[in-house]
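Record Flp pilus assembly protein TadD, contains TPR repeats, 286 aa.
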Amino acid sequence: MRQIIVMTALLGGALMLAACGASDSAKEAEAFKTVNAIDETNLSDIMLTVSDPKEAVKYFQRSANENPDRIDLKRGLAKSLVRAKQHDQAVKVWQAVLAMPGATDADKVGLADAQIRSNDWAGAKATLNTVPPTYETYDRYRLEAMVADSGKQWKKADSFYDTAVGLTTRPAGVLNNWGFSKLTRGDAKSAEKLFAEALTYDPSSFTTKNNLVLARAAQRKYDLPVVDMTQTERAQLLYTAALSAIKQGDVNTGRSLLQEAVDTNPQYFEEAARALAALDANKVKA
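=>
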């Protein structure tokens, strides 16, 4: 009888150990699953930021094909296609994302962005119209401003640009876009102010510096603005001012600016030298 009790106790202990072993294995498997998910999320983040865009596309294509129900991987594919400048394909993938359970208003904004990049302004406008007014983000209003601009709805564009600026701590890009919008409308003075403000947030943007020179030149202010610039940038900006002066009939000023651009550039400035030679040969008349 005692042997039976002992055997029963030993068997019970063995079963308990087996149960504990099974429980530990399940916990380990779950832990590994969690770690793998974290690693995969980190890898996805890396692929969307610092990796080569083409490599990112390959990664997300493979991962999305292996996990067709994972909307995050499909989003990653859409974003990486935009980075790789495959905008038409990005539109298709964003549309697929929106057809999946769990799609959000942010995904609609992503689609509108890709549509704008693929020059489908009507499609972008239609997509943004499906986003509820309660969804207020920088990206949404930045795109709304661009769409309004494309339709020459200046009052709406200005309102959207202003809202977008207030929703980000890095407004340099949208300020530059707003300034360019003002410049194309013929409001060079307002454009100058917006470009100057953009440079306070991103002093390294040559595009904004060049736009600032264009805005000043449109007002016949041909001297370069007081902004940080390299010697090469200075030469390029002088060249921009020179061409603007010549276009507006201020040929002598343009000639002087071209000469200064040639003298300033640390290397041979072919475009400026050629324009200067054309002026000197009277191929461009005052």
